[in-house]
Amino acid sequence: MIYLTLLFLILTISHPPLATSSLPSDGMALVPAGEFLMGNPVGSDGLPDEQPQRLVYIATFWIDLNEVRNDAYARFVQATGHRAPANSNPASTLWENSAPISDIGTHPVVNVSWEDAVAYCAWMGNRLPTEAEWEKAARGIDGRRYPWGNEWDFMKANSASYWAGRTIDFQSGADWDAFWIKGEGAKISNEKGIRGDVLTMPVASFPKSASPYGLHDMAGNVAEWVQDWYDPNYYQSGPLANPAGPERGAIKAMRGGSWLKPAISLRTSDRDWGTMDSRPSGTGFRCAKDAF
Predict the structure, then answer these.
(1) Using an 8 Å Cβ cutoff, are 129 and 63 in contact?
(2) Which of 29, 153, 261, 262 suits a disulfide with 170, CB 3.0-4.6 Å?
(3) Domain ranges in the chain?
(4) What dotted CATH number matches 28-67+125-290?
(5) Chain segment 108-152, per-residue pLDDT in tens
(6) What are the residue ranges of helices labelled H in the chain?
């Protein structure tokens, strides 16, 4: 798992969902070309790597409505012989004999590296979305803080707040740590977690939290690998049209937060990262595709 310093902050807005399409394949949404507000303004409560906020143009693209599920990933593994998902702690691995354990077929796949995600998307004739594409698909064109709007609602995402039942989110890193490591969260993980640890849920378990383009779980459930190399200063100099991240780097970007994270990490503008060969229990992915 990836743990970043937990800071807690706030923002606000909203607009109705846009229509989705099932072409070119069932389960993808078409995000039309145009500009959107990416990141957060300098001086706001956004984190430094989200600044400055910029008006970014993105060409039309397709993106999966849902995170890639275990049952879909199993078809890839069985067809190609690609390695199965695995945790560094064998007791927490959710697959056996190249197949997911029972009852998690509709959960998002985890314990996959950036390299695994790229291989799966390529097998499907797709690719990973860029950070910019992912953010536009998550927040739409009105700069909303969460996929569903500006106000945090712990009942709209699989997150630390959901498991804690907190209307008001964690107030500090120490508060979060006390819940997961020493408090009720540890008990919940042991009792309800898959193999006593992972707390993913079936994709689209929170239909009222869909993004403006109809995408599910763009906040929580699992964080998602995206195409770009991660650079905390990229927004200061990156292009304003179809940015694809730095040409090189040491770590890859992630988006969306996970079941493990508090509300601050589930904002549409929040950025996370991991080494491209790491296989966290809180990270999965979804695929994208050029429209033309």
Answers:
(1) yes
(2) 262
(3) 28-67+125-290
(4) 3.90.1580.10
(5) 999 999 999 999 999 999 999 999 999 999 999 999 999 999 999
(6) 70-80, 114-123, 131-139, 160-164, 173-177, 184-192
